[in-house]
Design brief:
The structure is a single chain. By secondary structure, the chain is an all-alpha fold. It folds into three domains: 77 residues; 102 residues, Receptor-associated Protein (Up-down Bundle); 63 residues. The chain has eleven helices and no strands. The longest helix is centred in the last third of the chain and has 55 residues. The two termini are 51 Å apart.
Length: 269
């Protein structure tokens, strides 16, 4: 085995993660791509370190150590990019999973067979239709419906979508009406989303109060008091001081915007 192949064995879940993220690459190719990216970036940073630190009489061994540390950090960040893609797809599916499930339920209640309902769901809008398309493709290749549902539930990044597929598979195995199982799990998911929205409201109230205090009240009063004190003690102020204050306030605003976005539940409100 080559070095890249041996390195890929250190990530046993990478193959599953790549399929969950819909990345059409082998684990070895993915590791090679991230390894090369980290290596090129580390070489560039090594040249920069050498040009800057050599003038400060820093030893070559210290520069090499810094380059190695930078390489391992960059490679660890790059290799986890697939996890970020999985989380992003999970959020996209969770926003539409309830609508996708209800679409199936409506088709089943109208008397359509489950396979026909899944085929129509694969042609609908949204992110979830891609997973229905994979189920349809597996069925067209000769895979039994139950097996296709089990495989897709194993590779979907959404826990809620996995529950729907799991309940449908159980209903098929038991031999009862799928719509009953599907209706119950959709009610459970709707209740979970309602609880998430209520929690979001409570977090939003407290975070908004903290935002008003830290990003509006304290900066405005602090700048006013600072200007008054500076005028009393004849402290010379130039534009650079105000630019620094404005820069800090902009950073604080971005931090709070990121917090507001991160706590938002993955549902269509």
């Amino acid at each position: 085995m080559g070095f890249i192949e041996q390195l890929a064995t250190q990530f046993p879940d990478l193959k599953k993660k790549l399929r969950m993220a819909h990345v059409d690459k082998k684990p070895e190719d993915y590791v090679r791509e991230k390894f090369q990216g980290a290596l090129v970036l580390s070489i560039g940073m090594g040249i920069f370190f050498f040009l800057v630190l050599s003038k400060m009489k820093v030893s070559i061994l210290m520069i090499l150590f810094l380059v190695l540390v930078f390489f391992f950090i960059m490679f660890s960040v790059f290799i986890r990019h697939v996890d970020a893609m999985i989380r992003r797809r999970e959020k996209d599916i969770d926003r539409e999973v309830l609508f996708a499930g209800r679409f199936l339920l409506i088709k089943l209640n109208t008397g359509q067979p489950l396979i026909n309902a899944i085929v129509e769901a694969s042609k609908s809008y949204g992110v979830a239709n891609k997973y229905f398309k994979e189920i349809v493709r597996e069925i067209e290749l000769g895979t039994p419906l139950e097996t296709a549902l089990e495989v897709e539930s194993y590779y979907t990044p959404s826990q809620k979508f996995r529950k729907i597929l799991f309940q449908i598979t159980n209903a098929l195995k038991i031999g009862i009406d799928v719509s009953q199982f599907l209706s119950s799990i959709l009610d459970e998911i709707a209740e979970e989303q309602l609880i998430e929205i209520q929690r979001y409201g409570k977090k939003l109230n407290s975070l908004t109060l903290f935002y008003m205090l830290m990003a509006i009240v304290i900066p405005s009063l602090g700048i006013t008091i600072f200007i008054v004190i500076a005028s009393l003690i004849n402290l010379n102020l130039d534009l650079m001081h105000f630019f620094v204050v404005i820069f800090i306030m902009v950073i604080v605003q971005f931090i709070f915007l990121s917090l507001f976005k991160s706590i938002r539940p993955d549902v269509n409100i």
